[in-house]
Amino acid sequence: MQLKSHLCKNKTPKMADAFGKAVLDYQKGLYTEDIKTFSSLDEEDVIPVPYLFRSFHKMPKIEQKALELARGKVLDIGAGAGSHSLYLQEKGLDVTALDNSKGCIAVCKERGIKSVVLGSILEYSDTRFDTLLLLMNGIGLAGKLKNLSHFLKHLASLLMPNGQVLVDSSDIIYMFEQDDDGGYWIPDNGDYYGEVKFKMEYKGMETDEFDWVYIDFNTLKNACESNNLNCELVLSGEHYDYLAKLTLKK
């Protein structure tokens, strides 16, 4: 698995402009190139823009499972081009697509999503939901491991008493060199190995560098335990990725 497939959320206004421009171009039939990504762990890569418009049947099993488990009033956090929201809306669920990219929200509207919110999840507190969706490593919006506790507390504040957070992420330990004993060579710089710095570029528009975090399941589970949340492993993928369900402890 490459990092590109789990980096499709927006974090800063400049980044949102590049990402939003790409999805708007595709929606208008002006697709000519993909989004380039540059990270502290990987060489130049791309996010194929058509992938952001995929149908349910072309989604990874982890995303399909999350959409099957979604129920009630749903908030799709970092909705992007709105593919997840659109599928749930067509199933009859009351879904709101949230993204801080004007371009993404415009595309969501054009694709027929009825309820959209332009803004950051950390600044959103309008209502509570039965399901929060954080797909394509939406937990990465926390930026760094030290921010995870605050991020989880905010998510918990948006949940109905019997609500759930459906989140996928990856353990990127596989990206580091492995020795003969099975251990991994991880830089001893004091940072969590899942913390990555990214930049994006699209048609000459380059974003500022931003923080992103991939969280292994045990680390996520421990953070949930510290914040009065249950954390259940729902499904493990083929490439160190997983789907987890978070719920409020009674």
TrEMBL record:
Biological process (GO), any one: methylation
Keywords, in A-Z order: Methyltransferase, Transferase
The keyword Methyltransferase is assigned to this record: yes
The Methyltransferase domain, residue ranges: 74-163
Recorded GO MF terms: methyltransferase activity
Origin: domain of life: Bacteria
Name this protein carries in UniProt: SAM-dependent methyltransferase
This protein's record includes keyword Transmembrane helix: no
Organism of origin: Flagellimonas marinaquae
